[in-house]
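Notebook p. 47: complex prediction with magnesium ion.
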Amino acid sequence: MSQKVSGVKGMNDLLPGDVEVWQHVERTARDIFSRFGYGEVRTPIVEDTALFVRSVGEETDIVGKEMYTFDDKGGRSLSLRPEGTAPAARAYIEHSVGNQEPLTRWFYMGPMFRYERMKTGRYRQFHQIGAEAYGSKEPAQDVEVMDMVVQLLRQLGLSDVSLNINSLGDDACRPVYQARLVEHLRGHASELCADCQKRLERNPLRVLDCKNERCQQIAGAAPNILESLCEPCRAHFDEVKRKLDALEIKYVVNPRIMRGLDYYTRTTFEFIAAHPVLGTASTVGGGGRYDKLVKSLGGPDVPAVGFGLGLDRLCLLLKESGQHFGRPTDLFIAVADEGSADVAFTLASRLRREGLRVEFDTRGGSLKSQMKRADKVGAIFALVIGEAERQSGQAQLKPMAGGEPMPVRLDELANTLRTRLTPA
Ligand code: ATP
Ligand code: MG
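Predicted complex, C-alpha cells below:
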C-alpha cells in the first residue's frame, strides 16, 4: 500500500460548499471597494526578507518568530509574505505610481503565511482582504477606509462587530508617551510575562496588546496614550471622530489598540467581533495610518492609511449566520432508457451554452437513482427523457420542490426555463 501524504499543518483545503462562502465575501468586497474607487493589486507571494524586516519591524512577533523564511537556490533570503501592506508599498514605489496618481487607492486579497500556534481562526496559511490609500494625510482618508470595512460588514450581514479606534501619535509625541509608559511598566517588570520583559526594553508599546492576563491588568493601569497626544495629533484624532459621527458609524475609543506592526502613526483601529465561534481570535481586522513607511522603504514622502481583514475569520462568522450562497442547479435531466442518453446529453450541453445550469448523470443508472441525485444536488427542475419524449419533442418539467409538472417543448426549453426561473 502506498503511504498517505497529508497537507501541511495549519494550511487548510477549502472544498466546494465552503468556497462559495469565500467567493461571496470576495465578490462583495470587490463590489464595495470599487464603489470607493479602489483598484485591485496583485503582488507575488514571496518577497525579499528585508522588505518585512524593514517595514513590519525586527522586534515584532511576525518578523521575530512567525515568518517562513528560506534561501533560494541563488542564496537570496526570501520570505512568504506575512501581510499585505509592505508588498503593496514596495510595488507602489517600484512602479513610481505616486508620480502618475497622487492619490492612489488599492485593494488586495490573497493568502498570507505566519508560523503560529494554531487554533480556531488562527492558521499558518490564512487569507486577508486589505486596502491601502496613498497620498492623503487627511482624517477623511482614515474615515474613508474605515467606512469601506463598515459597508462590507453591513453588506455581509455581520452586525455584531465593533470598531475600536485609537491614536499612536507621531514622532513629536510618541516618545514622550513611551517614556511615561516605560516608567509605569518598570514598576511591574517582574510581573510581566517573559515576552513582555523583552518588549519593555525593545518595544514597550507592544506590552499594551499582550494577551497574557497579568500583562493586561498592568496595561490597564498604564497611562493613556490619548492624554499624551501633541496638538496636531489630537486635532487629527478629533476630526476622525467627528467624521465617523457624521457618517453615523459607531465606534469605541480604545487607547489599548496598538497593532502588532511597527509602521503605524496616528490613527489605528480594529474591528472586533462578539461571536463565540472565533474564541480568542475575535479581531476580524485592523489597520491604521502609516505616514512614514513608504519613505522608509526608499520611496517618496507619501502618507498612507489602510487595513487588513482576516478572510478566514469573516467566513467563519458568515457560516454561523446560516445564510446560503451557492447558486443551485437549474435543471436535472434524467434518462428513462439507454436509447435516450445521447439526446439528453446533447440537450444538457445545448442548454448550458444558453447560460443555464444543467446537470446530467454521465453514469446512467436507474431512473430512481438519477432522481435521487437531482434531489441531492438541489436542482430546481427535473426533466425525464425517454422514448415518448424523443418521439413527441415534448416532456414534463417537474418542479423539485413540489407542485404540478408542466408540459414543455424540448426545442423551447431554454426560454421556458428562463421565464420560470426569473422571479416574478
Ligand atoms: P491577532 O492579534 O489575532 O494575532 P494580528 O494583529 O496579528 O492579529 P494583523 O497582522 O493585524 O493581525 O492582521 C489582520 C487580520 O488578519 C487579523 O485581524 C486577523 O483577522 C487576520 N489574521 C492575522 N493572523 C492570522 C492567522 N494566523 N490566521 C487567521 N487570520 C489571521
Ligand atoms: Mg498575530
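Notes: The longest helix spans residues 18-35. The chain has a mean pLDDT of 95.
Next step: compare against the earlier run before touching the bench.
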